[in-house]
């Protein structure tokens, strides 16, 4: 692992981008339009995701450009924000680059004026992939309507000394709830509630679910249900119900299958087993879900 200065970091990243075959993920507090254009033009793959910080003051000061969203929108590239983001991470297929360089001309040494940056690149494994996946699931993925509201706010922001420079107004903040781009098979529970409470499932399944629910061994049913309600799979289910209303077991299975990010895809039988566990957990959350069986198949709806 070598320590790379500004120019060398950009060259190593460019080499990786030019041969990218699977995906490129960028997490950068600041993103400028010219640097984003360079990244898109350099990348061999069009499967990109961009995440920036986008506090109001960042955009007013010119640290990031609002136009970056529209460039991504035209190229069908998801653009999200995470308002606590400070890191700079560039993922190209199985390689990850980390350091101090933002996706800006100065950070990437794309102009005569450059910052003194340092970073490195290395192959990353399953642990890092899970961390990145979980982080992406927490990102606020933007749409045109939300960005238009932001633009309107920013036009009135300059010179307003009463405004909180790091906060969006309530009208915008309410729209900034994270929306998952997709799901992973790993998100589904591997145990039903009885198996997890009695610890009768295999150890790996128990460990998996405790991790997903952010719970510890010996947790009570209330503690496990609280963990389930805050899990990524529960949020995904809520989003589907908001969009489609009442859903059958088969429809939930189909939606999950169609939104899977895993490659290779798991067997459909395994997905059905996970969805069955999901329905079992949801049926115990009476304040959120109602699970009924009108005929042969279960149906779930939001309460």
UniProtKB/TrEMBL annotation:
Gene3D superfamilies noted in UniProt: Endonuclease Chain A
Domain annotation PLD phosphodiesterase: ranges: 81-107
Highest taxon in the source lineage: Bacteria
GO MF term set: catalytic activity
Pfam families noted in UniProt: PLDc
Position of the signal peptide: none
GO BP, sorted A to Z: phosphorus metabolic process
Classification via InterPro entries: PLD-like_cat (IPR059166), PLipase_D/transphosphatidylase (IPR001736)
Name of the protein in its database record: Phospholipase D Active site motif-containing protein
Protein species of origin: Aliiroseovarius sediminilitoris
